[in-house]
Amino acid sequence: MEISAEIKDIINEFLIDEFELEEDQLVADALLKEDLDIESLDFVDIAVIVEKEFGFKVVSEEMVNIRTLNDLYAYVQKKVSEK
Fold it and tell me: What is the value of pTM for the model shown?
């Protein structure tokens, strides 16, 4: 599945703003916890922001499988496509 540049841009922008990450850290295969230091509790914030930005309900059971930045992009793309 092709991931839109708009989705990547929105996600990258809020990761930079919310978690004080640098743009060069945001590579597709970056591990959210290990490489980007995003804690388990931070996933709640990510879910809230994703819901607000993209207009769908995040299912916590589905978030469990998101390990890399690309997983997050793909999850959002899939949900947006289903709307």
Answer: 0.94
